[in-house]
Amino acid sequence: MFRQGYILGFFLCCISFSLAAQYKIPEVPKVQTSIYDYYNLLSATEQTNLEQKLIRYSDSTSTQIVVVIIDSTKGELINYLGARWGEEWNIGQENKNNGILILLAKTDKKITISTGYGVEHLLTDAMSRRIIERDIIPYFKQNNYYGGLNRGTDAIFEVMLGAYKGSRISKQSEFPFEVAIFLFLIFLIFLIAISKNRRNGGPGGGSKNTLSDIIDVIILSNSGRGAYRRSSGGFGGRSSSGGGFSSGGFGGGFGGGSFGGGGASGGW
Fold first, then answer.
1. How many other CB atoms are found less than 10 A from the CB of residue 15?
2. Of 47, 178, 186, 211, which residue is 20 to 30 A from 75 by alpha carbon distance?
3. What are the pLDDT digits (tens) for 2-40?
4. pLDDT tens-digit readout, 119-136
5. pTM higher than 0.70 for the full model?
6. CATH of domain 29-168
């Protein structure tokens, strides 16, 4: 009997702690827009640029992406808080459930991407985690919070368009690909030089042709690399700021999005 009472008391304590740890979500703002910085983390210019970009995206696609920045979740798991926040604010369009909430807890050093039912098939949990780890957190580790949020929202745009490839995570232990190509070209040039010399009967007979071959190889390799760099700019390289744009928020406001707990979270 004592043991059963002890177990019951333990569970009641756990429930009480859980209820006490719940973060009190603010009431739905009268002006329903894309950025709510309760921590004052972003500068006025950064907030305006990011807000305008997300409003333009909502106007053209109807998908509402909202960024909320707070101090701390006060002990609540950030992924649960994000889903609850999106649900209580009804982020998204009515009957489309196409809301996306990015919740950043600055002091906790945690972030989550929560998705409405209508976008889960595109912005999956795995894809949200990949964006957090590869596109957002590397900026946050450099204390560039605007850069992380800006790149993260661009990555979401790319996912929704089916064009996302992700930022490559560099590792110090990896042997640089460019160095490997350069060493291979040196080795190839050395073999060509030996072959030419042998074919022309001595070290001097084929020097002119060998030099020409070397120049051709270098030109071809450089032109190929240059073409790749010019063509690999991608959607994320576009500037997110624009002049002369002004808006009070989402057209029509939040319309009734439903969140089912989809998304991912991470820390740094």
1. 10
2. 47
3. 455 544 444 444 444 444 458 999 999 988 999 999 999
4. 999 999 999 999 999 999
5. no
6. 3.10.310.50
